[in-house]
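Supplementary Note 3. Input sequence used for the single-chain structure prediction.
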Amino acid sequence: MPLPEPTPAAVPATHRQVLLAARPEDTLTTDHFEVTTAPVPEPGPGQVLVRNRLMNVAAVMRPLTIADPDSFALTQLLQRPGNPMHGPAIGEVVTAAPGTDLAPGELVRHRLGWREYAVVDAAEAERLSPGALPDPAAYLSQGFAAWLGVVRGAEVRDGDTVFVSGAAGGVGTLAGQFARLHGAARVIGSTGSPRKAEYLVKELGYDAAVVRGAGPIEDQLREAAPDGIDALFDNVGGEQLLAALAVARRGARFALVGALSAQLTGDAMATVPISTFDLIARGITLRGTAAFDHMDAYPQYEREFGRALSEGTMTYPHTRLRGVEQAPRALCELVEGRHVGAVLVEL
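The predicted structure, written as discrete structure tokens, is reproduced below.
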């Protein structure tokens, strides 16, 4: 699907942006955000003004209540009250100040979404390769995290039985498809409702799904994988990680990609009790997998993802809402589990 049609080159005096009004202590609601009007900023040396066209919302953007924010390991993800929200966006360069190699009209990706216009340091504005992905929206997918977890984290191999936790989200819907492309013989996903479980099996090619709240995850997983699992792509942590450990085969490989069970409660640093002796005895590998450690692999991922989308061997499930004022609702609905796949907002 193409991006929204560009507006005329004239830059308005003001634009809309979304501020974080307060961090939630429990349930996230739209009252935690404020849509405001502000002057369109002007780029300084080495900067560009970008007209944002499309932005992504993801569960990792949920504002977190953290006792000591300055000690948080992933400070680039921390949303601060009183400031505009931030997250991945794509848009076209409107104005390029001296000292940049970008030109007006070029499409770029950056991390200053949640606003209609953004001043971005040229070094932080990634020029997008025309045609590398058949749908420009796919540049906002979480496909790189999905690919890394499958290929480098869990090292999925021919014949593997793979469990993907949080399989109906923006990462999980792609991780299961990548696992299949890389030889998995059986792919099992977890999700929060029977409706989503049916979607995983009927639309995305999962062999089985376990449903949160439909009984102990471990019991459901044992039934879905009676011979155990060889690899885990973990978006969630918590009970689902412990269930995967309980049914893992010797030598299983676990990619830890997300921690939704902790993040969605506001405590991103919540711990999970794990027996290290058991890991050693069964030769299980747990590997934290983050994109910033593997940027050398991005070109390989983009080629594989683009080819799979073009050939129809993969799809990019996503929902679109229109207007920056819809971004708070989009994030709240995502956190509540209302959507399958990625959630994008057209600006």
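Residues 298-311 form the longest helix (14 residues). The chain has a mean pLDDT of 89.
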